[in-house]
Amino acid sequence: MSFIKHLVPGFIAGRYLDLKRRLNKLETSVRCLEVAIDAMVVSPKYVPGDNVGFNGQRFRKRIFGELICAIPFDAFVETGTWLGNTTAYMAQTGGRPVYSCEINPRFHALAKMRLAGLKGMELKLSDSRQFLEELGRSSLSGKCIFFYLDAHWYEDQPLVQELDFIAGHWDQYVLMIDDFKVPDDPGYTYDEYPPGTAIDLTLVNSSVSKHNLSAFFPAAPAQEETSVPSGCVVLAPGDLTQRLSALPSLRKWPAGAASA
User: Fold this and answer.
1) Residue 257 maps to a domain
2) What angle do CA 192, 196, 200 make, to 5 degrees?
3) Same domain, 38 and 64
4) Which of 30, 54, 204, 254 could disulfide-link to 60, CB 3.0 to 4.6 Å?
5) Enclosing domain of residue 146
6) How far apart are alpha carbons 125 and 103 in whole angstroms?
């Protein structure tokens, strides 16, 4: 009888975690469905505007604008096309070709529909890791690339593998990670995928250290940001750190500092 009593708490905890995963999966599916329907009904074609691209965040766009002025990128690479708003914004604002992938067939199809007729973008239906591997074998491998990483919305979390692959195949690059926890500004939102795993410095710390990357966070506080203030981090290898340090929109995070 005591043996059964010992097993019960673990059994209940296991069932609770399983139920929590199922509910999170259902919530994600419902949200995807709502976004897809809204896109088809309200915004079937991409239309540029202040609230479009980089989550509609004015200061996030300023960071991007300063980056493309300071560094001669040859192309932009995006993981997680979603509806294509940031894809098109980067192509039209930055004037460089954009290569983007989306793992969800519905959102890939929606993005192709919404961006039809626009030039300078190549959209792939692909897992982000496979997509980066293909680009690493292409003519982009020796180029200076801006990477926008936003493919971390499902339980299979590719972010660390994305970072390691990029750092292993490119020398000149800057990474921006969306939905990232800003350690000293709780006003910025961030994601937890899979549930309970925050998109933060703790998650990427080993990659940052291994590849000698410097981390930069938005200089603007969350209350000054527009739209929903989603956090981000910008990572770059040592030889580009000085250029990023000179940008007013970014502030360098102390090397080795832990996530708050």
Assistant:
1) no
2) 50
3) no
4) 54
5) 54-252
6) 6
> Which residues, 6+ apart, have CB-to-CB distance to 66 below 8 Å?
247, 248, 249, 250
Give the position of tokens 């709502």.
34
Does pTM top 0.85 for this prediction?
yes
Could you report the per-residue pLDDT of 55-92, keeping only the tens digit for each? 999 999 999 999 999 999 999 999 999 999 999 999 99
Which of 209, 237, 227 shows the shortest CA–CA distance to 51? 227
- Closest-CA residue to 169 (of 129, 229, 202, 126): 129
What single-letter amino acid sits at 116? A
Q: How many domains does the chain fold into?
A: 2
Contact at 8 Å (CB) between 79 and 149?
Answer: yes
Cα 205 to Cα 104: distance, rounded to the nearest angstrom:
28
Residue 57 · residue 225 · CB < 8 Å: yes
Q: What distance in Å separates the CA atoms of residue 9 and residue 208, rounded to the nearest whole number?
A: 39
